[in-house]
Amino acid sequence: GAVVSQHPSRVICKSGTSVKIECRSLDFQATTMFWYRQFPKQSLMLMATSNEGSKATYEQGVEKDKFLINHASLTLSTLTVTSAHPEDSSFYICSATTPSRGTPYEQYFGPGTRLTVT
Amino acid sequence: LAKTTQPISMDSYEGQEVNITCSHNNIATNDYITWYQQFPSQGPRFIIQGYKTKVTNEVASLFIPADRKSSTLSLPRVSLSDTAVYYCLVGDNTNAGKSTFGDGTTLTVKP
Known about the structure:
The structure holds two protein chains of two kinds.
Chain A: E1 4-7, E2 10-13, E3 19-25, E4 32-38, E5 44-51, E6 57-58, E7 67-73, E8 76-81, E9 90-97, E10 108-109, E11 113-117
Parallel strand pairs in A: 2-11
Antiparallel strand pairs in A: 1-3, 3-8, 4-5, 4-9, 5-6, 7-8, 9-10, 9-11
Chain B: E1 9-13, E2 18-23, E3 31-38, E4 45-50, E5 53-56, E6 61-64, E7 70-75, E8 84-92, E9 105-110
């Protein structure tokens, strides 16, 4: 149980275009999802917190107009990278949590999406 | 969010026990400690979680002293497949487990 999927696993897009990444909790309802970005040989950096039915909360330094997050249902959150540039190339990882899985909260991570902007 | 500090890297040999210590001096009362393992190009995988004292599961043990300002992940009898990056997270249980990743510890297991 507690499976989180991401789609696509890899995507290549041209500079200036937008790309959408989906994060789904497959066997539980996630009230909260987190989005991270990870550059090669670095740690995960928290980008934003996504709560179902409300606006995402972005971490300092993360452009909310560039990284659009939508959490329309309890099983799906999407991250859209708008007007992508080569420096946005990275590994994007989501995680999902829910109190129904027990206390304390545990983050269930997706497999990640490799974005390459050419 | 509590900041965590871990050794950047550790080396071990197959069959040995490995202990990785994490420092989290600013841990709050409602925070829990969780350890994750990450292989290249994969999402982190849950290893173990605890609040205080000792927790053990089928793959690891977690030791947390009474002041909770540190924790130690113990991996018994490591194998080559345990070569990975290990992260200690302190999750804010009042905020859905929101956490900040530290730099992690790269464990290299040698034959």
